[in-house]
Description:
Elements: E1 20-24, E2 27-32, E3 35-40, E4 51-53, H1 61-72, E5 80-82, H2 88-91, H3 94-101, E6 105-107, H4 112-115, H5 132-136, E7 151-153, E8 166-170, E9 179-183, E10 188-192, H6 203-208, H7 224-236, E11 241-244, E12 250-251, H8 252-264, H9 266-269
Parallel strand pairs: 4-5, 5-6, 6-7, 10-11
Antiparallel strand pairs: 1-2, 2-3, 3-4, 8-9, 9-10, 11-12
Organism: Paenibacillus marchantiophytorum
InterPro entries: Metallo-B-lactamas, NDM-1-like, RibonucZ/Hydroxyglut_hydro
Pfam family, one: Lactamase_B
Amino acid sequence: MESTFEHVYFPLTTVSSGEGKEVNIDIYCYCIQFVNICLLGNPTSKTKEWFLVDAGLPHSADNIIRLAEDHFGSMTKPQGILLTHGHFDHVGAIGELLQHWDVPVYAHELEIPYLTGKANYPKGDSTVNGGLISELSPLFPNHGINLENHVHSLPADGSIPGLPEWQWIHTPGHTPGHISLFRARDRSLLAGDAFVTVKQESLYNVILQTKEIKGPPKYFTTDWEAAEASVRKLQALQPVLAVTGHGTPIREEELTNQLNYLVENFERVAVPEEGRFVHER
Length: 281
């Protein structure tokens, strides 16, 4: 049976800091300064069950809680929090959120060491060039966090507890345990930072939110061979809608054309000419 959601379209205009967009009836994308979070769940359903995908920047917990209550009603809390990966801009508010909600957190098993205080990420690589954000990246937090017994490894079969229509896909490269989320019914993709829709290395482009599919943010990506394989894996799914960790959601022909271009030109478009991890490719 053909999904009715394939014909429920929402306008995908630029998402700026502090703005949210309902990109599908049960996918709400919200931009916190320069990083996106998503609320997964239908606010018109009787149960109003929902999940949070990623946890934004530090000090954004109150903003996320207000957003959730505006969207799903007062005193709401998610069934769980899904982390695409553990970089500071994707887990910054998670400690405060867990104090408020006390819900399970799910991540790939290879990301767990960074979420239980056992490992730190490499420092940002300013040598990849590309813009001011790259140059400042060594100053960004790179330490792991300790979520203790809150965090759980996702099931090995690709399923997500509480989200039967969605599957997680291992898309390493940006981090060892990076994941993306995909729903086959309407080919909706939450790509995380496997690819993004803004030149994240450039503060100018980030401020303007210039929409263009790019590879993962260069200054934090440690395995370019895996990153390319991950993008190819996502392209093969033929997504109709993609929400990325940075930049504006993208859909249909524009998504297909730009994702194909990225795959065909990955070495030139995505991989930096210089960088600490380029030689390992």
